[in-house]
Amino acid sequence: MIHILPIMPSLPKSPLQNISCTLKSFLFSRNISSHLLTPTVIYQNNPLIFSFFKETLRTAILKTYSLLTLSKVCFFAVPISLKYGINYLQNPLTAYLSPFCFITYGISSVLLTVFEGKKAQYCAQISLQAWKDISLETYRHLLNLDVTFHYNSSQKSRLFSLYKAHQYIEKNIRQFLNYLLPLSMDFCISGAYLWLCFGSEFFITFMSTILLYAAFTLRTSSGRRPIIFQQKENDKLADFIISESLANFYTVKHFNAEELQLRKYAKVLQKYLNFNLTNTGSLWQLNLGQKIIFVTGLTTNLVLAVWKVQTGALTAGDVVFLQALMMQIMGPLNFLGNFYREYSESIYEMKELFILLARRPKY
Q1: What own/partner pairs with CB < 8 Å and gap ≥ 24 does 277-282 have?
Q2: Least CB-packed of 120, 201, 342, 361 within 10 Å?
Q3: pTM of the prediction?
Q4: Which of 75, 79, 97, 91 is nearest to 318 (CA)?
Q5: What local confidence, expressed as pLDDT, does residue 100 receive?
């Protein structure tokens, strides 16, 4: 007898669900070498990944974006207060206003740290709730699978992989809210300010520097991905060799296989060592290239600003503003490679999780 399940009509998505789908596509739309892991399958099998858009966390989301807005106000108040402090200092009639600008600079710096810290707390609440929901959903799915699935592979290795996948889901959401979104706002606001207040040449230099920096970082980091993945494979293999040898300790002793197990483990460690050395060597090349690109863009803008000062189009405070603004942006920009590396690692770690969630019981 064939049982036909009724097809439930799809309900219209709310605005929050549309936002969650956009974020889901950003985090998980990359090809991770499995036809099962399409965004549709991911959403159907694991709709709770983005459960932080639930009603219970709406207040935390609103507070997060409110604090993000306040932190961006303080972020740009720092170089602007330096600019006017220098300009007022050059004129004896307005020199008395200069200390107030520098006081504003100090207060803005402190408030920036306060707002960023509070925002991080709410981001942690959102991402940890998502981690909790996906962990419960995965455990429920494991309990519903058939017995043959649990006896056909190592449970310890699978549980370790699932645990790391859950950790990366939480980390991806947190980094999107704490890093990628604020950095994108910094680029947009800085570019608009330079275009309106300094001129198109400063805007073009600034955006060219950012785009070259990002392109170089992503391309170099992509070249390092296979090495990172091979490191992880060797790490898992080393853990498997030790755990299986100790779990079958009496068998190893009975057949006098200690030296065999040691040779297998030493071979895996040597491969891990070689990959680690290669990875370390490529890292300093990445850092050097990033530094050259950013310093070239900063120097070009400063030279242009000095030339504008000589013609009377800009002031000395504008030069200080440019330097302070770009140095502030360089701070979070330095973590772009780290963000991409962790995102790439998360794709690798979450592959097994999504394959598991796509699996259905045989009976």
Answers
A1: 278/227, 279/224, 279/227, 279/228, 279/231, 282/220, 282/223, 282/224, 282/227
A2: 361
A3: 0.67
A4: 79
A5: 94
The answer, yes or no, to whether residue 153 has pLDDT greater than 50, is yes
pLDDT at 70: 93
Return the number of other C-beta atoms located less than 10 Å from residue 235's C-beta: 13
Contacts of 160 (CB under 8 A, 6+ apart): 236, 239
What is the percent of the chain where pLDDT is above 70?
79
Using CA atoms in the order 145, 146, 152, 156, what is the torsion angle rounded to 10 degrees?
40
Domains and CATH numbers, the chain: 131-358 (1.20.1560.10)
**What is d(CA 53, CA 197) in angstroms, rounded to the nearest whole number?**
38
Res 46 pLDDT > 50: no
pLDDT in tens, 169-221: 777 878 888 888 888 888 899 999 999 889 899 999 999 999 999 899 888 87
| Torsion angle of C-alpha atoms 238, 240, 246, 248, degrees rounded to 10 | -140
DSSP 345-362: HHHHHHHHHHHHHH----
